[in-house]
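Bench notes, afternoon.
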Amino acid sequence: MEKPTPDFAIFQNDRARVSGVWVKEVGEWQVCPERDFDALEVIATMLRKSPSPEVTRMRLAKVIAKIREGSDL
């Protein structure tokens, strides 16, 4: 039996400092530049330790959308 496709996922290889992000709507892994490794590590830690990872993910998505729009936070 196949596992369901996640809505969102992050992979990281600490040794090579390689990161990738999966967003279900995009449907493929997006490899991120090395400069984003530390920021993605913080996001991954927040999601992993959150008592409500889905709520945390939605809040992060809203903040990222606002940043992309150029609005003030």
